[in-house]
């Protein structure tokens, strides 16, 4: 028996990285009976059979997992958003941030295609960057065309398991190709009629880049808040969570309650109005979510 980490799942096989070698494994039937699916990122125990193939015997406890993309034990999520083609989407960025925060994964914001901005739009984007940095997020601005920001991305990948996530067409695959040219990941042009890209990544796989493991994940343009409940939401907005302790009432939802420190901060422009607007939108969405049985 040996131990390793699943780096790819494809067509019923799990590819386990064990030191320098990769072993193709199948999952034991007991996993199906227990309705357990091994995930990319899982640390597993496996038994080697003939022809360099094996069976996964057990899965170690996960520190976190994502459903979409299906991956476990992630250290950080590189949230890739383009500033043009498709346009920068603040609401979607905050949605991604909430999901990642709820999974106790460190988010890093990466803005691509900076070379496409007009001077006026560039000023606006830099203003948003400062807002997020003030909250405490790391923000990296990049351009594959001129190579700017790539060294910063390389630095954060060191010895981490990272997920690259974001809308289709924002340049995730182009960014990964720039970081490791031999990958030659497929990229597609943006659809002019829809203003978004086509899906080019069809499965989750961990690839080695700069002494780290990186998942290029299928792109998507909408994101449900899943099983997040009302009481958890404010903790997924760091600036709101930090100020909650100063509200008059414990359990303050920061809507209409008197002496709410969060609403006072919004009025004093210490919290960006768009962040508070998105917080309110997500609260309504969670309240109106149909129960799952």
UniProtKB/TrEMBL annotation:
Transmembrane parts of this sequence: none
Cellular component, GO annotation: cytoplasm
Annotated GTP binding sites: 112-115, 166-174
GO MF annotation list: GTP binding; GTPase activity; metal ion binding; rRNA binding
Cofactor descriptive note: Binds 1 zinc ion per subunit.
Gene3D superfamilies: Nucleic acid-binding proteins, P-loop containing nucleotide triphosphate hydrolases, Probable gtpase engc, domain 3
Binding site for Zn(2+): 247, 252, 254, 260
Family listed: Belongs to the TRAFAC class YlqF/YawG GTPase family. RsgA subfamily.
Oligomeric form and interacting partners: Monomer. Associates with 30S ribosomal subunit, binds 16S rRNA.
Name this polypeptide is given: Small ribosomal subunit biogenesis GTPase RsgA
Naturally occurring in which organism (per UniProt): Bacillus smithii 7_3_47FAA
């Amino acid at each position: 028996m040996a131990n390793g980490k699943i780096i790819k799942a494809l067509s019923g096989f799990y590819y386990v990285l064990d030191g320098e070698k990769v072993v193709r494994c199948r999952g034991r039937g007991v996993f199906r009976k227990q309705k357990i699916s091994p995930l990319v990122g899982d640390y597993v125990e496996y038994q080697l059979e003939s022809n360099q193939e094996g069976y996964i015997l057990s899965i170690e406890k996960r520190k976190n997992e994502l459903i979409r993309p299906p991956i476990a034990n992630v250290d950080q999520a590189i949230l890739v958003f383009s500033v043009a083609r498709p346009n920068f989407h603040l609401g979607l960025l905050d949605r991604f941030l909430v999901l990642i925060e709820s999974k106790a994964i460190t988010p890093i914001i990466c803005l691509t295609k900076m070379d496409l901005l007009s001077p006026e739009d560039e000023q606006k984007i830099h203003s948003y960057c400062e807002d997020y940095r003030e909250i405490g997020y790391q923000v990296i601005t990049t351009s594959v065309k001129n190579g700017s920001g790539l060294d910063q991305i390389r630095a954060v990948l060191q010895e981490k398991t990272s997920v690259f996530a974001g809308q289709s067409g924002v340049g995730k695959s182009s960014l990964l190709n720039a970081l490791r040219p031999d990958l030659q990941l497929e990229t597609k042009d943006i659809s002019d009629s829809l203003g978004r890209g086509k899906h080019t990544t069809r499965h989750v796989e961990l690839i080695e880049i700069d002494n780290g493991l990186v998942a290029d994940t299928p792109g998507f343009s909408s994101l449900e808040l899943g099983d997040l409940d009302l009481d958890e939401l404010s903790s997924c907005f760091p600036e709101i969570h930090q100020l909650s302790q100063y509200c008059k009432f414990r359990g303050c939802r920061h809507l209409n309650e008197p002496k709410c420190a969060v609403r006072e901060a919004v009025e004093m422009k210490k919290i960006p109005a768009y962040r508070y607007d998105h917080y309110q939108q997500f609260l309504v969405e969670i309240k109106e979510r149909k129960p799952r049985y």
